[in-house]
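Continuing the batch. This is chain 6 of the set; chains 1 through 5 are on the previous pages. Same settings as before, nothing changed between runs. Recording input and output for traceability.
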Amino acid sequence: ALNNLTHKQQSAHLIKTIRKDVVNQVTVAKAPSTSTYISGVLIYADSKSIKNKLREAGMLNKQGGAIARLASINSENFRIIQEFTRKARGLLAYYCCADNFREIKQLVWFQIRYSLGATLARKHKTSVTKVFKHYGRNPTVYIKDPKNKLKLFSFTSFPSRNIIYGLPPEF
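Output for chain 6:
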């Protein structure tokens, strides 16, 4: 029946019959072709299930806002930053092929970074604003020279906004 339809009718038919499969929290949908020779596959990361996993890990509250991860409060500062950095980089690497990769970038930059700030603030009994003033916009721990207290090099650092938003979607 599709062979007798015009290209516009075929595209309309494909739009109506979008097929979705959920595989490892990624939704795959058949895209309508813009040309008779081109067709593609759209891959969407399921941001709701990602937020649920972060909620289970203690990084988000029920409304999706960032909260302190209580399980990490007794760790050293650089270990807390390393833990959140690993989580952020892992999400960015795993979902880099998703067509809604920008949503994942926003989730990392806002929710995970603020959860890191809230965790450090809770540990030091201060505000998130003061934590970001002390550690920087993307929290970083430096190795310092004990004599003159100069910063020698960055020991661990949360990815900066330019790094996160500069990542291209790729397979």
